[in-house]
Amino acid sequence: MARWLRMSWLVVAAVAAAPSIPAARARALGVTVDHVRNGGVIPPVYAFCVASRTGHTAPGPNRSPAIAWSHGPAETRSYAIVMVDTDAPTDFATADKEGAVIPAAMTRRDFYHWVLVDIPPGAGALADGADSAGPAAKPAGPTPHGVRGLNGYGGGRAGYDGPCPPWNDAIAHHYHIRVYALDVAHLALPHPFAGTDVMTAIRGHVLARGEIVGLYTQNPDVARTLRR
Questions:
Q1: Which member of 134, 138, 151, 199 has the greatest number of CB atoms within 10 A?
Q2: Coil/strand/helix, residue 10
Q3: Tens digit of pLDDT for each residue in 202-227?
Q4: Rounded distance, CA 143 to CA 184, Å?
Q5: Is the previous residue joined to 192 through a cis bond, with omega within 30 degrees of 0?
């Protein structure tokens, strides 16, 4: 398990930071995520990995959370959901290694956990488990609720795969769960596409956006500070 996690984290090293999106004209979109308050801790049921007394980490339930959003402007033709960890380390040499700590001061970059686009304009919610109900890999491509893109875990994994930060990271990771209202029904994307492709494709098409930011850690010392 630990070896697999180290290999998965190495995928992040090849992912460039997503380009910024001009948001001067984007309106606010209300977003709610069940059991995740803004700035609060993400429950383990939504995590890809959970803290364990044996080996520090274990597979998590990996359920996609129920998410709802307010209606976008009348011009909305589709929605997109992107969940990104903005605190992924840039150096994984010491990730998940006994006796080592990933320092808080390390430079961080983005890691995509959920990439779902072309969600119909009449939609306003996804149910608990709608895009992931367990640890099994999900293919990229069309689903009943949108088109899945590749997440950062590699191996062709797509759609939602929840938090799994290194258990020896000195900081809690911030997971931005974002919903975008777009003025196009279908994004012009390659198959398969990744989170960075989406962030480029939606430039100039964002009518409204909203997000919930949740925290997650597998480091028990950091977890104790979050409960205070």
A1: 151
A2: helix
A3: 999 999 999 999 999 999 999 999 96
A4: 18
A5: yes
